[in-house]
Amino acid sequence: MKAALVSACGEVDEVLNVGTAEAPTRSANAAASGELLVKVHACSISPSEWRLISGDADIIKKPPGFPYIPSLDVSGTVLESDTPEFAVGAEIVATWDNVGGFGGMAEQCIVKASLTAIRPEQISPVDAAALANSAGHALLAVKSQRIAPADRVLVLGAAGGVGSCIVQLLKVPGVGGSDSTHVTATSATKEGKDLLMSLGVDRVIDYSLEKWWETSDLPFDVIVDCAEGTSAWQHACDGALKPGKDGGRFLALVQKEHRIIMKSYWDFTAFLVPVFFRQLWTTFRTSLPKYQTSMTMGDVTGLVLRDVLDLVVDGKLKAIVDPHCPLPFTTEGVRTAFKLLAERKAHGKLVVQID
Ligand SMILES: NC(=O)c1ccc[n+]([C@@H]2O[C@H](COP(=O)([O-])OP(=O)(O)OC[C@H]3O[C@@H](n4cnc5c(N)ncnc54)[C@H](OP(=O)(O)O)[C@@H]3O)[C@@H](O)[C@H]2O)c1
Protein backbone atom coordinates (compact mmCIF):
# COMPACT_ATOMS: atom_id res chain seq x y z
CA MET A 1 0.00 0.00 0.00
CA LYS A 2 0.98 3.67 -0.32
CA ALA A 3 2.32 5.18 2.93
CA ALA A 4 4.29 8.12 4.30
CA LEU A 5 7.53 6.70 5.67
CA VAL A 6 9.99 8.22 8.13
CA SER A 7 13.39 6.59 7.57
CA ALA A 8 15.31 8.18 10.49
CA CYS A 9 15.18 11.14 12.88
CA GLY A 10 16.24 14.32 11.10
CA GLU A 11 15.15 17.01 8.66
CA VAL A 12 11.80 16.42 6.98
CA ASP A 13 13.26 16.91 3.49
CA GLU A 14 15.75 14.13 4.13
CA VAL A 15 13.82 11.53 6.12
CA LEU A 16 10.14 11.74 5.05
CA ASN A 17 8.88 10.23 1.78
CA VAL A 18 5.74 8.70 0.37
CA GLY A 19 6.51 5.14 -0.74
CA THR A 20 5.16 1.63 -0.39
CA ALA A 21 4.75 -0.45 2.75
CA GLU A 22 3.09 -3.73 3.62
CA ALA A 23 -0.58 -3.34 4.49
CA PRO A 24 -1.16 -3.80 8.25
CA THR A 25 -2.88 -6.90 9.62
CA ARG A 26 -4.80 -7.23 12.86
CA SER A 27 -3.14 -9.18 15.66
CA ALA A 28 -4.24 -12.61 16.89
CA ASN A 29 -6.17 -11.05 19.80
CA ALA A 30 -7.77 -8.33 17.67
CA ALA A 31 -11.26 -9.24 18.87
CA ALA A 32 -10.35 -8.88 22.56
CA SER A 33 -8.34 -5.69 22.09
CA GLY A 34 -10.88 -4.11 19.76
CA GLU A 35 -8.54 -3.61 16.80
CA LEU A 36 -10.17 -2.31 13.62
CA LEU A 37 -8.60 -2.38 10.16
CA VAL A 38 -9.47 0.87 8.42
CA LYS A 39 -9.24 2.27 4.88
CA VAL A 40 -7.98 5.82 5.52
CA HIS A 41 -9.60 8.90 3.94
CA ALA A 42 -7.68 11.69 5.68
CA CYS A 43 -5.01 12.05 8.36
CA SER A 44 -4.03 15.08 10.49
CA ILE A 45 -0.82 15.78 12.42
CA SER A 46 0.05 17.31 15.81
CA PRO A 47 3.24 18.92 17.21
CA SER A 48 4.19 15.72 19.08
CA GLU A 49 4.61 14.00 15.69
CA TRP A 50 7.15 16.57 14.62
CA ARG A 51 9.01 16.10 17.94
CA LEU A 52 9.20 12.40 17.17
CA ILE A 53 10.77 12.99 13.76
CA SER A 54 13.18 15.60 15.13
CA GLY A 55 14.44 13.13 17.76
CA ASP A 56 14.48 16.02 20.27
CA ALA A 57 12.47 14.18 22.90
CA ASP A 58 13.50 10.58 22.39
CA ILE A 59 13.82 9.96 26.11
CA ILE A 60 10.02 10.21 26.45
CA LYS A 61 8.80 9.07 23.05
CA LYS A 62 10.73 7.09 20.51
CA PRO A 63 9.67 6.06 17.03
CA PRO A 64 8.56 2.41 16.99
CA GLY A 65 11.48 1.60 14.63
CA PHE A 66 12.42 2.71 11.11
CA PRO A 67 10.87 3.17 8.71
CA TYR A 68 7.64 4.06 10.48
CA ILE A 69 4.35 5.58 9.34
CA PRO A 70 3.45 8.76 11.29
CA SER A 71 0.24 9.89 13.03
CA LEU A 72 -3.03 8.15 13.86
CA ASP A 73 -5.60 10.96 13.73
CA VAL A 74 -7.66 9.54 10.91
CA SER A 75 -11.04 9.34 9.28
CA GLY A 76 -11.82 6.20 7.31
CA THR A 77 -14.01 3.20 6.52
CA VAL A 78 -13.87 0.02 8.61
CA LEU A 79 -12.58 -2.96 6.57
CA GLU A 80 -12.28 -5.59 9.34
CA SER A 81 -13.87 -5.59 12.78
CA ASP A 82 -15.19 -7.74 15.62
CA THR A 83 -16.80 -4.74 17.33
CA PRO A 84 -20.54 -4.42 16.52
CA GLU A 85 -20.49 -0.66 17.15
CA PHE A 86 -17.93 -0.25 14.32
CA ALA A 87 -19.01 -2.90 11.83
CA VAL A 88 -17.44 -3.40 8.40
CA GLY A 89 -18.38 -0.42 6.21
CA ALA A 90 -18.82 2.02 9.13
CA GLU A 91 -17.44 5.53 8.59
CA ILE A 92 -15.29 6.41 11.58
CA VAL A 93 -12.86 8.88 13.09
CA ALA A 94 -10.09 7.62 15.36
CA THR A 95 -7.20 8.91 17.42
CA TRP A 96 -4.29 7.75 19.59
CA ASP A 97 -3.58 7.63 23.33
CA ASN A 98 -0.54 8.61 25.40
CA VAL A 99 1.34 5.58 24.14
CA GLY A 100 1.50 7.37 20.79
CA GLY A 101 -0.06 6.97 17.39
CA PHE A 102 1.54 5.50 14.32
CA GLY A 103 0.44 4.08 11.01
CA GLY A 104 -2.32 6.55 10.03
CA MET A 105 -0.68 8.33 7.10
CA ALA A 106 -1.25 5.36 4.81
CA GLU A 107 -3.98 3.79 2.71
CA GLN A 108 -4.82 1.39 5.55
CA CYS A 109 -4.19 1.41 9.29
CA ILE A 110 -5.17 -0.28 12.55
CA VAL A 111 -7.05 1.73 15.18
CA LYS A 112 -8.47 0.86 18.61
CA ALA A 113 -12.26 0.71 19.04
CA SER A 114 -11.92 2.48 22.42
CA LEU A 115 -10.38 5.50 20.62
CA THR A 116 -12.91 5.55 17.77
CA ALA A 117 -16.27 7.19 17.06
CA ILE A 118 -18.74 7.00 14.19
CA ARG A 119 -18.32 9.94 11.80
CA PRO A 120 -21.67 11.70 11.28
CA GLU A 121 -22.38 12.15 7.57
CA GLN A 122 -22.65 15.96 8.00
CA ILE A 123 -18.92 16.07 8.85
CA SER A 124 -16.54 15.55 5.93
CA PRO A 125 -13.64 13.07 6.23
CA VAL A 126 -11.12 15.96 6.15
CA ASP A 127 -12.92 17.88 8.92
CA ALA A 128 -13.28 14.71 10.99
CA ALA A 129 -9.55 13.96 10.80
CA ALA A 130 -8.83 17.60 11.71
CA LEU A 131 -10.99 17.37 14.81
CA ALA A 132 -9.74 14.12 16.30
CA ASN A 133 -7.00 14.65 18.87
CA SER A 134 -6.83 18.45 18.99
CA ALA A 135 -10.53 19.14 19.41
CA GLY A 136 -10.68 16.30 21.93
CA HIS A 137 -7.87 17.88 23.96
CA ALA A 138 -9.49 21.30 23.60
CA LEU A 139 -12.75 19.91 25.00
CA LEU A 140 -10.97 18.29 27.98
CA ALA A 141 -9.02 21.52 28.56
CA VAL A 142 -12.02 23.84 28.57
CA LYS A 143 -14.15 21.52 30.71
CA SER A 144 -11.33 21.19 33.25
CA GLN A 145 -11.41 24.95 33.90
CA ARG A 146 -15.13 25.20 34.84
CA ILE A 147 -15.47 28.55 33.09
CA ALA A 148 -18.11 30.95 34.48
CA PRO A 149 -20.04 33.20 32.06
CA ALA A 150 -18.42 36.33 33.56
CA ASP A 151 -14.85 34.96 33.31
CA ARG A 152 -12.23 36.80 31.27
CA VAL A 153 -10.06 34.25 29.50
CA LEU A 154 -6.79 34.62 27.58
CA VAL A 155 -5.72 31.96 25.06
CA LEU A 156 -2.06 32.05 23.95
CA GLY A 157 -1.30 30.46 20.56
CA ALA A 158 -5.02 30.61 19.82
CA ALA A 159 -4.97 30.22 16.02
CA GLY A 160 -3.26 26.80 16.09
CA GLY A 161 -4.81 23.34 16.00
CA VAL A 162 -5.83 23.21 19.66
CA GLY A 163 -6.31 26.93 20.33
CA SER A 164 -8.76 27.41 17.44
CA CYS A 165 -11.04 24.83 19.09
CA ILE A 166 -10.52 26.19 22.62
CA VAL A 167 -11.62 29.73 21.71
CA GLN A 168 -14.86 28.36 20.27
CA LEU A 169 -15.61 26.03 23.20
CA LEU A 170 -15.05 28.76 25.81
CA LYS A 171 -18.32 30.36 24.73
CA VAL A 172 -20.41 27.17 24.60
CA PRO A 173 -22.77 26.91 27.61
CA GLY A 174 -22.33 23.61 29.43
CA VAL A 175 -18.76 23.26 28.14
CA GLY A 176 -17.22 26.69 28.71
CA GLY A 177 -18.97 29.80 30.03
CA SER A 178 -21.50 31.47 27.73
CA ASP A 179 -21.63 33.80 24.76
CA SER A 180 -20.78 36.63 27.16
CA THR A 181 -17.52 35.03 28.37
CA HIS A 182 -14.82 37.49 27.35
CA VAL A 183 -12.14 35.78 25.27
CA THR A 184 -8.83 37.45 24.42
CA ALA A 185 -6.47 35.57 22.11
CA THR A 186 -2.98 36.03 20.67
CA SER A 187 -1.81 35.85 17.06
CA ALA A 188 0.84 37.77 15.15
CA THR A 189 -0.37 37.04 11.61
CA LYS A 190 -3.19 38.51 9.56
CA GLU A 191 -4.51 35.00 8.78
CA GLY A 192 -4.52 34.09 12.47
CA LYS A 193 -6.20 37.33 13.53
CA ASP A 194 -8.88 37.04 10.82
CA LEU A 195 -9.54 33.44 11.81
CA LEU A 196 -9.88 34.31 15.50
CA MET A 197 -12.25 37.23 14.85
CA SER A 198 -14.38 34.95 12.64
CA LEU A 199 -14.56 32.50 15.57
CA GLY A 200 -16.08 35.13 17.87
CA VAL A 201 -13.00 36.11 19.90
CA ASP A 202 -13.58 39.49 21.61
CA ARG A 203 -10.05 40.81 21.29
CA VAL A 204 -6.92 39.65 19.46
CA ILE A 205 -3.50 40.75 20.73
CA ASP A 206 -0.62 40.75 18.27
CA TYR A 207 2.17 39.30 20.43
CA SER A 208 4.83 40.72 18.10
CA LEU A 209 3.61 44.28 18.79
CA GLU A 210 2.01 44.23 22.22
CA LYS A 211 2.83 42.57 25.56
CA TRP A 212 -0.29 40.68 26.57
CA TRP A 213 0.76 40.91 30.23
CA GLU A 214 0.50 44.72 30.05
CA THR A 215 -2.90 45.07 28.35
CA SER A 216 -5.93 46.85 29.75
CA ASP A 217 -7.81 43.48 29.92
CA LEU A 218 -5.87 42.45 33.07
CA PRO A 219 -6.22 40.58 35.31
CA PHE A 220 -7.60 37.49 33.59
CA ASP A 221 -9.51 34.77 35.43
CA VAL A 222 -8.06 32.04 33.25
CA ILE A 223 -5.07 31.74 30.92
CA VAL A 224 -4.83 28.75 28.58
CA ASP A 225 -1.29 28.53 27.24
CA CYS A 226 -0.92 26.73 23.90
CA ALA A 227 2.31 28.52 22.97
CA GLU A 228 4.69 30.03 25.51
CA GLY A 229 5.39 27.92 28.63
CA THR A 230 7.46 29.12 31.62
CA SER A 231 7.58 32.80 30.59
CA ALA A 232 3.76 32.92 30.38
CA TRP A 233 3.47 31.37 33.84
CA GLN A 234 5.86 34.01 35.23
CA HIS A 235 3.76 36.84 33.75
CA ALA A 236 0.64 35.17 35.14
CA CYS A 237 2.18 35.19 38.65
CA ASP A 238 3.27 38.82 38.23
CA GLY A 239 -0.33 40.03 38.07
CA ALA A 240 -1.63 39.12 34.60
CA LEU A 241 -3.81 36.49 36.25
CA LYS A 242 -5.91 36.72 39.42
CA PRO A 243 -4.53 34.78 42.41
CA GLY A 244 -6.00 31.35 43.13
CA LYS A 245 -8.04 32.68 46.09
CA ASP A 246 -9.88 34.96 43.61
CA GLY A 247 -10.32 32.19 41.05
CA GLY A 248 -7.21 32.66 38.85
CA ARG A 249 -6.30 29.50 36.90
CA PHE A 250 -3.47 28.79 34.47
CA LEU A 251 -3.75 25.76 32.18
CA ALA A 252 -0.44 24.80 30.55
CA LEU A 253 -0.57 22.89 27.28
CA VAL A 254 3.03 23.99 26.84
CA GLN A 255 4.89 23.27 30.06
CA LYS A 256 8.36 24.75 29.56
CA GLU A 257 8.87 25.81 25.93
CA HIS A 258 7.11 24.73 22.78
CA ARG A 259 10.30 22.99 21.65
CA ILE A 260 10.93 20.11 24.03
CA ILE A 261 14.52 18.92 24.25
CA MET A 262 14.62 15.71 26.24
CA LYS A 263 17.66 13.68 25.42
CA SER A 264 18.80 12.62 28.90
CA TYR A 265 17.25 11.70 32.24
CA TRP A 266 18.53 15.05 33.53
CA ASP A 267 16.44 16.88 30.84
CA PHE A 268 13.49 14.71 31.82
CA THR A 269 13.80 15.62 35.51
CA ALA A 270 14.43 19.31 34.78
CA PHE A 271 11.24 19.33 32.69
CA LEU A 272 8.92 17.47 35.02
CA VAL A 273 9.93 18.66 38.50
CA PRO A 274 8.96 22.36 38.05
CA VAL A 275 5.68 21.36 36.40
CA PHE A 276 4.52 19.08 39.19
CA PHE A 277 5.98 21.37 41.87
CA ARG A 278 3.94 24.31 40.48
CA GLN A 279 0.80 22.21 40.38
CA LEU A 280 1.25 21.03 43.98
CA TRP A 281 2.53 24.35 45.39
CA THR A 282 -0.30 26.44 43.95
CA THR A 283 -2.88 24.07 45.41
CA PHE A 284 -1.81 25.37 48.85
CA ARG A 285 -0.37 28.76 48.00
CA THR A 286 -3.54 30.61 47.02
CA SER A 287 -1.81 33.97 46.63
CA LEU A 288 -0.58 32.57 43.29
CA PRO A 289 -2.82 31.51 40.40
CA LYS A 290 -3.69 27.81 40.41
CA TYR A 291 -1.48 25.94 37.93
CA GLN A 292 -2.64 22.90 36.02
CA THR A 293 -0.75 20.95 33.37
CA SER A 294 -2.56 19.31 30.47
CA MET A 295 -0.43 16.21 31.19
CA THR A 296 -2.87 15.35 33.98
CA MET A 297 -5.99 16.07 31.93
CA GLY A 298 -6.49 12.53 30.59
CA ASP A 299 -6.72 10.86 27.20
CA VAL A 300 -8.98 11.62 24.28
CA THR A 301 -11.14 8.47 24.19
CA GLY A 302 -13.85 7.44 21.74
CA LEU A 303 -16.41 8.95 24.14
CA VAL A 304 -14.63 12.32 24.07
CA LEU A 305 -14.52 12.12 20.26
CA ARG A 306 -18.26 11.46 20.22
CA ASP A 307 -18.87 14.58 22.34
CA VAL A 308 -16.70 16.61 19.93
CA LEU A 309 -18.61 15.34 16.88
CA ASP A 310 -21.98 16.05 18.60
CA LEU A 311 -20.87 19.65 19.22
CA VAL A 312 -20.03 20.02 15.52
CA VAL A 313 -23.37 18.54 14.42
CA ASP A 314 -25.14 20.91 16.84
CA GLY A 315 -23.35 23.88 15.24
CA LYS A 316 -21.41 24.74 18.42
CA LEU A 317 -17.93 23.87 17.12
CA LYS A 318 -16.36 24.14 13.66
CA ALA A 319 -13.44 22.08 12.38
CA ILE A 320 -10.67 24.50 11.43
CA VAL A 321 -8.47 23.21 8.63
CA ASP A 322 -5.33 25.17 7.73
CA PRO A 323 -5.80 27.10 4.43
CA HIS A 324 -2.99 25.05 2.77
CA CYS A 325 -5.00 21.88 3.36
CA PRO A 326 -6.03 19.24 2.59
CA LEU A 327 -2.55 18.58 1.26
CA PRO A 328 -2.13 15.84 -1.37
CA PHE A 329 -0.77 12.43 -0.41
CA THR A 330 2.57 12.94 -2.15
CA THR A 331 6.09 13.34 -0.81
CA GLU A 332 5.81 17.08 -1.35
CA GLY A 333 2.37 17.22 0.29
CA VAL A 334 3.35 15.42 3.50
CA ARG A 335 6.67 17.28 3.74
CA THR A 336 4.80 20.60 3.45
CA ALA A 337 2.46 19.54 6.28
CA PHE A 338 5.33 18.62 8.60
CA LYS A 339 7.33 21.74 7.72
CA LEU A 340 4.36 24.01 8.53
CA LEU A 341 4.04 22.14 11.82
CA ALA A 342 7.75 22.46 12.64
CA GLU A 343 7.73 26.18 11.81
CA ARG A 344 4.58 26.67 13.93
CA LYS A 345 2.78 28.29 11.01
CA ALA A 346 -0.42 26.25 11.15
CA HIS A 347 -3.75 28.04 11.45
CA GLY A 348 -6.12 25.30 12.45
CA LYS A 349 -5.13 21.70 11.65
CA LEU A 350 -2.80 20.31 9.02
CA VAL A 351 -4.55 17.52 7.13
CA VAL A 352 -3.38 15.18 4.35
CA GLN A 353 -6.05 13.76 2.04
CA ILE A 354 -5.27 10.08 1.61
CA ASP A 355 -7.99 9.03 -0.90
N1 LIG B 1 -3.53 17.09 20.02
C1 LIG B 1 -2.74 18.12 20.09
O1 LIG B 1 -2.44 18.73 19.10
C2 LIG B 1 -2.20 18.53 21.45
C3 LIG B 1 -2.65 17.92 22.61
C4 LIG B 1 -2.12 18.35 23.84
C5 LIG B 1 -1.15 19.33 23.88
N2 LIG B 1 -0.73 19.87 22.72
C6 LIG B 1 0.32 20.91 22.79
O2 LIG B 1 -0.30 22.18 22.65
C7 LIG B 1 0.57 23.07 21.96
C8 LIG B 1 -0.19 23.72 20.83
O3 LIG B 1 -0.53 22.73 19.86
P1 LIG B 1 -1.17 23.16 18.48
O4 LIG B 1 -1.43 21.91 17.70
O5 LIG B 1 -2.30 24.10 18.71
O6 LIG B 1 0.07 23.94 17.84
P2 LIG B 1 0.17 24.65 16.44
O7 LIG B 1 -1.05 24.38 15.64
O8 LIG B 1 1.48 24.30 15.84
O9 LIG B 1 0.21 26.19 16.85
C9 LIG B 1 0.35 27.15 15.87
C10 LIG B 1 0.12 28.51 16.51
O10 LIG B 1 1.23 28.82 17.36
C11 LIG B 1 1.41 30.21 17.32
N3 LIG B 1 2.79 30.58 17.60
C12 LIG B 1 3.89 30.24 16.87
N4 LIG B 1 4.98 30.77 17.42
C13 LIG B 1 4.57 31.49 18.51
C14 LIG B 1 5.22 32.28 19.49
N5 LIG B 1 6.56 32.45 19.46
N6 LIG B 1 4.49 32.87 20.46
C15 LIG B 1 3.16 32.70 20.50
N7 LIG B 1 2.46 31.95 19.61
C16 LIG B 1 3.16 31.36 18.63
C17 LIG B 1 1.07 30.61 15.90
O11 LIG B 1 0.63 31.93 15.99
P3 LIG B 1 0.30 32.93 14.77
O12 LIG B 1 -1.18 32.96 14.76
O13 LIG B 1 0.95 34.20 15.15
O14 LIG B 1 0.87 32.30 13.51
C18 LIG B 1 0.00 29.60 15.48
O15 LIG B 1 -1.29 30.13 15.59
C19 LIG B 1 1.77 22.24 21.49
O16 LIG B 1 2.88 22.48 22.31
C20 LIG B 1 1.30 20.82 21.63
O17 LIG B 1 2.34 19.92 21.89
C21 LIG B 1 -1.25 19.52 21.52
From TrEMBL:
<feature type="domain" description="Enoyl reductase (ER)">
    <location>
        <begin position="19"/>
        <end position="352"/>
    </location>
</feature>
<dbReference type="InterPro" id="IPR013154">
    <property type="entry name" value="ADH-like_N"/>
</dbReference>
<dbReference type="Pfam" id="PF08240">
    <property type="entry name" value="ADH_N"/>
</dbReference>
<dbReference type="InterPro" id="IPR036291">
    <property type="entry name" value="NAD(P)-bd_dom_sf"/>
</dbReference>
<dbReference type="GO" id="GO:0016491">
    <property type="term" value="F:oxidoreductase activity"/>
</dbReference>
<dbReference type="InterPro" id="IPR052733">
    <property type="entry name" value="Chloroplast_QOR"/>
</dbReference>
<dbReference type="Pfam" id="PF13602">
    <property type="entry name" value="ADH_zinc_N_2"/>
</dbReference>
<dbReference type="InterPro" id="IPR020843">
    <property type="entry name" value="ER"/>
</dbReference>
<protein>
    <submittedName>
        <fullName>NADPH-dependent alkenal/one oxidoreductase, chloroplastic</fullName>
    </submittedName>
</protein>
<dbReference type="InterPro" id="IPR011032">
    <property type="entry name" value="GroES-like_sf"/>
</dbReference>
